[in-house]
Design a protein that fits this description.
The protein has helices at about 5-15, 25-40, 40-50, 65-70, 100-110, 115-125, 135-155, 160-170, 185-195, 245-250, 255-260, 385-390, 395; strands at about 20, 60, 95, 160, 205-210, 225-235, 240, 255, 265-275, 275-290, 295-300, 315, 320, 325-335, 340-345, 365-370, 380, 400-404. The chain is α+β, with helices and mostly antiparallel strands. Among the domains are: about 5-70, no CATH class; about 205-285, no CATH class. The relative contact order is 0.12.
Length: about 400
Amino acid sequence: MSGSNLIKEWQYLLKQKYRKDISKDRLLTCIILISNRHKISTVDSILVLDKLITGEEKVFIKEAPLEDILVPKEHIEGIPMKGISIDCQNIGHLENFNNSCYMDSVLFALLVIPNKFINDEILNKKLVKNFPRCTIKARCDIQKALRELKKDILSGKRSKCINFRRLLGQCYIQGFEDFSRYNERDADEFLKYLFSMFEVEKGHYIKYTYGTNKVQGKITNMDVTLTSKIHIKDTSPVFDINYQTLLRIKPGSTLSHIINIPDDSGILDEPLRAKRKLFKRRIEYIKLYNYDYLVINLQRSLPEGRGRYIDKKVIPNETLTLSNGKILQLNAIVIWFPGHYVAMLRCSSSEHTGNGNGPNGNGPNGWWYYNDLSNQLDKIGSYSQMLKYDRSSTQTNGTLFFYV
C-alpha cells in the first residue's frame, strides 16, 4: 500500500468517535502490525505517523482490542471500500432462526466480502427520502442493524437476524412481501427489497431492437434492421434471467451466453412500426454496459408454485466482461434447494492475493461453503473445485450470482 493510503488509514483511526490515549508499547505494536500488513518497513510507518502526531497527548486510536486492528481497513465500519477478499477461516456465522436461510444467505453474500458499492449504496448511504410506509428513521435503524451484523461476522461472532428481521416490520415497500414474518421467502425478492429500500439504482444496460420480415430459417445481419438503441440507466443491480429463457437454453450454457440470448417475438399479431416500415417480427438484445456491482438472478422457480424448479445445468463465468470493457469477478453465489438456501463465497487470507490455491486448491484462499444450519464454513478450494462441489450443486441449483 502506498504511503498516502497508509496516512488515510491512520487519519481514520485518529478521528474515531471513541478515543483514548495510546501507550508507547501499544503504539509500537500497532506500528508493527500495520507495517507487516501493508508490507512497508516499520521505519516508514513511524515516519508517516510522525507527520500526523505532534505529541503524545495527541496520540489516539480506535478503542478496540488489538486483534481488531488486524482487520484490514476495508473491514472497518464506515469506510468506503473497493472489493477485496477476506480470510474465511476466521469469520463468524449467521445462524438459522425460523426460516431465515434466504435472508442469511443473501446477507452473507452482501456483507462478508467488503465492497465499496455496498458500503456507499446501503450501509453508509445518506437517506433523504421518506417512503409512504418506510420512514427515514426506520431505514436508518435497518442500516445500523446491518452494520452490526457485518461487524459481528467479521469479528468472528455467531449471530442471528432476529433484531434486523424485526426492524423490517417498520418498512413496507410496495410490491414486496413482509420479510419480518417467519414464512419461507425467495432470496431474490429479499435482495430486490433491500435494493429498493435504499434506492440502489446504479445499473446501466443497452437495449437493441431489430425488426425483420424473415419468419423462417436462419437470420443474418442482412435480414434485420436496427429500429432502436436505448440506454437504460439508473436501474437495479439485479439482472433477471427468466424461467422461459432458462427452459430454452442447452444444459451447460454459461451465464455470459445466456445474458446475450435475444428475445425473439416470433410473428407479431400487430406489426412493428419503425423507420417508416412494418416488420412482422421483433428481436431484442440486452448488453450489460456499466455496473460496479451486478447480481445475475437465474429464476429457476416455475410460476405454478413454490417448490417446483428448473435444475438445468448453468456454468457461472469466473469473470464477466461488460460492454464498456469493465471486468467483474464472481464473488458469491446463493444456491436454492427446495426448502433451503445456502451460499458460496470467494475468500482469501489477508496475506495473499487472487485465488492463491493452485491447481489443488491448497491454502486458506478460494471458495467456501456457507450453510446457516451448520456450525462453520467449509472450505472448497479453487473455482473449478467449486463448480464440482457436490454438496451445493452450484451448476444446477445456483440462483443468485454476485459479480464485483
